[in-house]
Predict the 3D structure of the following.
Amino acid sequence: MLNIRKIICVFSLFMSSLIVVGQIRIQKKANLKYDNLAYIDAIESYEALVENGIAQDQIYKRLANANYQNANYQESAKWYQLLFAMEPTSYVGEDLYKYGVSLRSIGDFETSKIWMEKFSALYGTEETEDQNSLVYLKKINQQSGQYSLKELSINSEESDFAPSYYLQQLVFASTRDTGIIAKRINVWDKKSFLNLYANMVPKGNDDEQIKLFSKDLRTKAHESSTAFTKDGTTVYFTRNNFHDGDFGRDKSGISRLKILRADLVDNKWTNITSLPFNSDDYSVAHPALSADEKTLFFSSDMPGTIGSSDIFKVAINTDGTFGAPTNLGPHINTPARETFPHITPTNILYFASDGHPGLGGLDLFATELKVGKKLQIINLPRPINSEQDDFSLIINESEKSGYFASNRIGGMGSDDIYEFMELAPVQFSCYTDIKGWVTDRESGKKMATAVIKVMSLDNNKEYNIQNVQGNFQMNIDCDFDSLIFKVEEEGYESASITVSGGYKEVLDSIVVSLQKKTEPFKVGTDLFKVLNLNPIYFDSNSSNIKQLSYADLDKIVQFLKENPQYKIQVRSHSDSRGSDTYNQWLSEKRAESTVQYFTTRGIEDYRVSGKGFGETQLLNECSNRVKCSTALHEINRRSEFIVVE
């Protein structure tokens, strides 16, 4: 009996070891598939591991991202929820953001708002107060009815998107299987590689007229998103990094996207060349031509990109050469994705983004690119946008019609092309109704005799504003950058507050509190506390000050201008993450950058100095090798503004 028990025990251990070895093998294969962007296969393997009781935050994270990359937002939200329930330490801000987008895309706006706020708090993004809130959604819904919509019969059961105008044709990209082209499968989403097709009728409503656009441009790689010159003799289009029958790849094995140009000669597309700013190390895709054909807009993750992908523009010289690509900047580009630009003859830029506030997934936005005019980013209302991905919009302004693609519920395939009619133009002009009141800081009572002055930082223009029993109100075109409200009252310290422009039509609850005059500030006083400033944020591992901190630094500028008798020292501190030497260096650079901010705004250099302390003056016990939460480390990462004279 004893021998039998030993045999059973040994056999059980042997079988258990086989199971463990098998699971390790499956996970290695799943990781390899994921790293090679074979997301659908990776999902199947990871789900098999979970079904067998393997619960790891890394598996949940990869399941969430793989589903997110394929716009399976219901599934990505599920796996992100399981990931964060484990309280992982390995997540990054991108995970918080993608969870928020996934929740928004399935209609859970309130929970999405919570996670977006966590992302904003931890990573210092310029999340607006109403982003993801029901207030903003109500604003979007109030604009609905500006468009009528219909799905086209050219759609297939596969992916159809990226429409473009070509003479009297509609050219688009599709993964459909015509039976004519040898079918090759893309491991990312298990769909066929993209090819270009053309609908040979003007309005795109006869699927029998669809044919392959050109054999001259077709390869074994993806071809998509075209932009044609008006005479139809030049095309810019997107293709994988593919040359002489082989895929070019970056160091991680990814075949990036490139924009190519071709000329029509004797009814044949020839002179196919790669644009000079393409690279094996990043993607350049989705071209759009300006009306004068002197500027090319495109999407890329090239160096200098703010988010996952940004929109750039580049000059096309008269000799056919190109200038240097220029990023369109942080008003348009966000830490997330901006892609599929389209520019109209009136310089309205349409683009897709999941970084600006919207309904979910990629939404379509519009903005006017006019010199001297503040950019207003407009979310196109329903039925253009939905809770799913909406992208690759083109419009004929003279006919007030256009096309875009969406993977919304109810379509024929995974992505479908829709035709729309513009019933009312996009409204970019708006006004801001600013309301607030003045109070005594100690008692909270309203101050009816305080004098209120308003200065525009755009043009130094002053506005008259009336104090009515401690209340004030003004109406201004919301095409402004910043306003400074300065309030004065005898026996009180003057106070000011900066209001930034934005999409809000009503901005209320501005409270300016006045403090009774006290003794002069003593040496050692920290203006950060006295002026009740928000934390000063910098770009990650950089001394570049984030724009959202300008308003707080401007309060110190205002204080120093109003009190020329004071001198201050900027003291920059880091947390303990990273080496002591690096943290010391970075804090010194950030102190220098902050001092430079003040001197470039008119503060004499002898009145401000800076010093970096690295991690030598921690406010808690989170020193080297002490495990602490992100929030505790955040306490140590600070700037002080100490009165020294």
